Amino acid sequence: MTTISQLSQKTKDLSLQSIQIELKNPNGVQEGYQDFAKELPALSRKRLEKYGIDLSKGYPRRPDHIPIFLDEAYKIRNRPNPNYIERGLNADPEKKALFGAATEVVNLTKYIGTEIVGLQLSDLNEQQLDELALLIAERVVVVFRKQDLSPQKQLEIGEYYGEVEEHPLTGQAKKGITVVWNKFNRGGPLIKFQRGAFAGWHTDLDHEFSPAGITHLHLDSTSETGGDTGFISGYGAFDKLSPSFQKFLEGKVAIHKSAHVYYERDDILSGPKHIEREHPLVVTHPVTGWKSLFVNPAHVVRIKDLEKEESDLVLKYLNEVYAKNLDIQVRVHWQPVKEDEGVSVIWDNRISQHVAISDYNDQWEGPVRHAHRVTSLSTPPVFDPNSKSQREALGWDN
Ligand SMILES: [Fe+2]
């Protein structure tokens, strides 16, 4: 016969077992190499082999230690980077070295996006990289096609722009080179048709102490059609607001959550939780000195010091301002990607939202989308009450 105390012990054992199973895998990921090398798209494999990325143990590799607890996740880069250099501040405002080397410089829309034609990112010297940083700060996103770029060079450029983020969970080609590949990221070719009004606009790594600044996505293989990336200017979103609403928002603080979840060490049963950090809701870009809205629908959970209903209402409106105004958006097509002709898109996460458009699927016939992302972390965002909006600074209303 089972006594009450034996039963209670059994229940405890059972719940401990189930907790342990969950703790092993709070975000559904495992450590070490993953067995996806044989599924690499042909163009990606050629590039990785050409540039000596070792695929013999598998591809890609997750970090050796996957954090499970919130306190350990908070400790990652929980400090300013004393060595950070804002490269765009050292640039020639006319960008003569960069533009002089290009055959063409094409603005994709009036307010956001520029394509540079006829030069290789791998050939840029420091003066040109500084000018590129200024161009990204001004135009938000810059596109380079027909790039023969090694993963190592992509990483080197990222290191020039700041401390390269080494994601504690994602698969990487090398430390700091995050793999963006559905077959691996989603454990299968699972891009689904989305019903409803969900778009997926977000900003990368805005929950970090020093959020993502210049971010470089390089596609070495893509589907024949689809998988475009949309970008929206935070400068433009701020300029869409009335001056008195702008004033209301300036100085407010927003709370940003991480994409991934972790457990409270002393309160595991309260369930997985996000990292949360506070940043100004209106930020001033350190290079341009222009004001930008710094919110996004994926990660910003509330505005500090407002009632929940007020915060929800304001955030909903601000995210609609981003999403509905096509004049402050640009849609980048990645095709065509050919052998030794990958496409690089470089943007600044401090002044933008973006989305990978879900109209491709790795299960369909033909080539598959595979990319490497290198993210340079910046500095904690600040708001300068004396700064101007982009329209104000450039005299667009005069
Ligand atoms: Fe992203």
From TrEMBL:
Residues 376-398 are annotated as: Disordered. One of its GO terms (molecular function) is 2-oxoglutarate-dependent dioxygenase activity. Keywords: Dioxygenase, Iron, Metal-binding, Oxidoreductase. The keyword Oxidoreductase applies. Residues 106-375 form the TauD/TfdA-like domain. SUPFAM superfamilies: Clavaminate synthase-like. Signal peptide: none annotated. GO terms for cellular component: cytoplasm. InterPro entries: AtsK-like, TauD-like_sf, TauD/TfdA-like. The keyword NAD does not apply. Coiled coil: none annotated. Its cofactor is Fe(2+). It comes from the Eukaryota. Belongs to the TfdA dioxygenase family. This is TauD/TfdA-like domain-containing protein. It comes from Wickerhamomyces anomalus (strain ATCC 58044 / CBS 1984 / NCYC 433 / NRRL Y-366-8). The lineage of its organism: Eukaryota, Fungi, Dikarya, Ascomycota, Saccharomycotina.
